[in-house]
């Protein structure tokens, strides 16, 4: 028998009903067998099933031999969550258990589920996690970057100006950064990261984790950008960037070094050398070099 939840009685593998409440079920990001036994029990026992993509959840249940039967299967996604949540809250208030699964990974981690969970909490209903797969944590474990402190930043804005402001705001964070990105924008994101963070910052791009064509590319932003340049990639992508240096370079020191470099080389080369030496964003150093160019 599974241990009882502090929020109320739990369930057993014997098929007893779940206690009323919302069960947030993490589902595989690739390999179907990554689902937990507890998640399977919840999906088999819940009175109502809700999903970001009902077809995906139905297929997952078929793979693991879990019948839907006559239980409701409700679509809850970004476009209808506000409207669908009251119906599910009402069902829980009437004593029903509701299992919610996003299309892949953990609900609310760049996926729907937050309005529904907040509505349940506001109504005094239990919200229970069935933890499991998460692309962000999976990528962190294989990235080779520090894992003692990390910041999940989700998707960067698509618009160029907003994306630049967004990345500049993350530049000095003292934690490994985790971003999601679409295949169509990965090359542009890597270029923008190089400009905002400096080309020498360590990074890792994880693609199609736990799937057949899983790929992890590690190196500096310059190296990883070069590795992805011109590639037509597909699949789910997680980008991780090493934390900012604990000690920031003294502006007087690097400007003095820049002046010496400008005596011997072009503005572009001087800016690149100083940015790399002091672990500074090349774009910022380049702007100063333009004003001081000799």
From TrEMBL:
UniProt cross-references to SUPFAM superfamilies, sorted A to Z: Tetrapyrrole methylase
Keyword S-adenosyl-L-methionine: yes
Residue ranges occupied by any RsmI HTH domain in the UniProt entry: 249-291
Signal peptide start-end: none
One Pfam family this sequence matches: RsmI_C
Molecular-function GO terms, alphabetical: rRNA (cytosine-2'-O-)-methyltransferase activity
Domain Tetrapyrrole methylase positions: 22-224
Domain of life: Bacteria
Main location: cytoplasm
Reactions it catalyzes: cytidine(1402) in 16S rRNA + S-adenosyl-L-methionine = 2'-O-methylcytidine(1402) in 16S rRNA + S-adenosyl-L-homocysteine + H(+)
Assigned keywords, A-Z: Cytoplasm, Methyltransferase, rRNA processing, S-adenosyl-L-methionine, Transferase
InterPro entries listed in its UniProt record: 4pyrrol_Mease, 4pyrrol_Methylase_sf, 4pyrrole_Mease_sub1, 4pyrrole_Mease_sub2, rRNA_ssu_MeTfrase_I, RsmI_HTH
Location(s), subcellular: Cytoplasm
EC code: 2.1.1.198
One GO CC term, this protein: cytoplasm
Main function: Catalyzes the 2'-O-methylation of the ribose of cytidine 1402 (C1402) in 16S rRNA.
PANTHER family xrefs: RIBOSOMAL RNA SMALL SUBUNIT METHYLTRANSFERASE I
NCBIfam families: 16S rRNA (cytidine(1402)-2'-O)-methyltransferase
Family: Belongs to the methyltransferase superfamily. RsmI family.
Listed name of the protein: Ribosomal RNA small subunit methyltransferase I
Protein source organism: Paragemmobacter aquarius
């Amino acid at each position: 028998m599974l241990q009882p939840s502090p929020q109320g009685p739990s369930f057993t593998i014997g098929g007893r009903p779940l206690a009323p409440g919302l069960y947030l079920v993490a589902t595989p990001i690739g390999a179907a067998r990554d689902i937990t036994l507890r998640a399977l029990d919840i999906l088999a026992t819940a009175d109502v099933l809700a999903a970001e993509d009902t077809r995906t959840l139905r297929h997952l249940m078929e793979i693991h031999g879990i019948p839907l039967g006559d239980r409701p299967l409700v679509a809850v996604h970004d476009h209808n969550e506000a409207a669908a949540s009251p119906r599910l809250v009402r069902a829980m208030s009437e004593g029903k258990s509701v299992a919610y699964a996003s299309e892949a990974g953990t609900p609310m981690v760049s996926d729907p589920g937050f309005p529904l969970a907040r509505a349940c909490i506001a109504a005094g209903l239990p919200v229970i996690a069935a933890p499991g797969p998460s692309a962000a944590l999976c990528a962190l474990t294989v990235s080779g970057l520090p894992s003692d402190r990390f910041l999940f930043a989700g998707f960067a804005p698509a618009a160029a100006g907003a994306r630049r402001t967004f990345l500049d705001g993350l530049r000095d964070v003292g934690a490994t950064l985790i971003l999601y990105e679409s295949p169509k924008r990965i090359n542009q994101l890597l270029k923008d990261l190089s400009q905002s963070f400096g080309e020498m910052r360590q990074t890792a791009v994880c693609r199609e984790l736990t799937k057949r064509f899983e790929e992890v590319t590690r190196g500096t932003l310059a190296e990883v950008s070069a590795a992805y340049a011109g590639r037509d990639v597909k699949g789910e992508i997680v980008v991780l960037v090493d934390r900012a240096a604990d000690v920031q370079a003294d502006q007087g020191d690097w400007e003095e070094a820049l002046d010496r470099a400008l005596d011997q080389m072009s503005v572009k080369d001087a800016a690149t050398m100083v940015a790399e030496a002091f672990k500074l964003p090349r774009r910022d150093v380049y702007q100063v070099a333009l004003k001081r160019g000799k």
